[in-house]
Amino acid sequence: MTGQITGRRSLHKWAAAVAVVLGATALWGGTASAANIVTNPGFESGLTGWTCASTAAVVSTPVHGGTKALSATPAGSDFARCQQTISVRPSTAYTVSAWVRGNYVFLGATGTGTTDAQTWGTPGATWKQLTTSFTTGPSTSSVTVYVNGWYGQGTYYADDIVLDGPGGTNPSPTPTPTPTVTPTPTPTPTPTPTPPTSNGKRLLVGYLHASFANGSGYIRMADVSSDWDFIDLAFGEPTSVTSGDIRFNRCPATECPNVESDADFIAAIRTKQAAGKKVLISIGGQNGQVQLTTTAARDKFVQSVGAIIDKYGLDGLDIDFEGHSLSLNQGDTDFRNPTTPVVVNLISAIRSLKARYGSKFVLTMAPETFFVQLGYQFYGPGPNGSADPRSGAYLPLIHALRNDLTLLHVQDYNSGPIMGLDNQYHTMGVADFHVAMTDMLLTGFPVAGGATFPALRPDQVAIGLPAAPFAGNGFTTVAEVQKAFGCLAKGTNCGTYRPHGVFSGLRGLMTWSVNWDKYNGSEFSRNHRAYLNALG
């Protein structure tokens, strides 16, 4: 469910857009003077003090100051982040800056306890300074400062990273989560729309680490809080990328000493279902790349997913295809009539599962913004084949299955800046980002200047969020989340972005994950369950 998603762009197409965004991005030419509390800020001691992606290295040229600098290259679904957790004081103003070069470079801070800070720029082959600021929350004792690149935009460099402000006491080590955190078929009759579930109740959806612990601890099914309405088992993964053969392996006792038996796990699922909860198998995640390139893979997907659902008596399926699972071939330009086999076969497979299990089958999807809202600007490889073919690649899936879709909860995190319907770029971590991204789903939008992707019903849409600062990039505080939800559902307390309507039926919130929420003192579920209940 994690991994910053922003795609390869044709740079000449992005020139005007970058100019707009950089109006809000500070690029300085002078030297900062700071009380720097970063360890090894100029990488003179290698990567000491930093946690970095596998492609990160220290180089002797180019450098901004001293004799060393950081070099990192985004590869695949990795955006080549390098980060450091630093002790700070509560309710204190800080400024973070870095000298960078490269096509696209991001700088920011998470875990601030208020609004996380992020800025970015396109300095190219010359050194430029990025800077942004934040104020820590009243109980904040540490923040994580980071720098990273952008998918497909080549190597970036960073040097002389500064966090200007007073240091605090040394924080306890912060757990590092495993990111989590996307032929023409024979026409089939349009299925009867799936009726809204839970009698219109606002929903809380949470992913349960069922096959791994991920540093946050294993939670038995019986111990999952009753605050959660949909519980997505993470994850079902393929035996190989193109096999279509999905397996769900429960967490081994060596990793999860408190794991329950299959019999107890299934019994607990039945208890949850008797209480009105829905338990789904989620397919994919960051590590579970699934490409149904052939009809044989399609059929195996149907058979193997059905076997998992039957074994555990599950209510349905969540599609969490990330990375390179979905992309569009050159010439596949109409989301209403897709021709790319991995898309066509997935649509067909899900329709088969829906037909098998009937109207009560629950279908949810958790794409990243890159696969949905980015389609407003870019769709597939584009007319000249230079764009990232994954751009907007979920749109044909969502559109074809909209009558079967129970809930779409786009991951409003691990995202680069995305253009909204106001033709302005919005950055994750604040209310306006969630309002702008959700408004696109509830209003509809032209896909890359062409045909309009029709709006979804409000009861089909939830907002996807990380449960805690260490669960995903772009953490949004409780207050900002509820500000966004109130703006969309009630038309009140809106910020700069104004949605195109009041969507009183907006269904709820999704989070990665149940485990990280509990690890964080259940802040997400406790606060948002009460808020959604009061909202009615």
Automatic annotation (TrEMBL):
PROSITE patterns given in the database record: GH18_1, GH18_2, TAT
EC number: 3.2.1.14
GO molecular function (one): endochitinase activity
UniProt entry keywords in alphabetical sequence: Glycosidase, Hydrolase, Signal
Positions of region (Disordered): 163-200
BP GO annotations: carbohydrate metabolic process
Comp. bias regions, Pro residues: 172-196
Residue span(s) of domain GH18: 202-535
Top enzyme class: hydrolase
Keyword Zinc attributed: no
Signal peptide coordinates: 1-34
Family: Belongs to the glycosyl hydrolase 18 family.
Annotated protein name in UniProt: chitinase
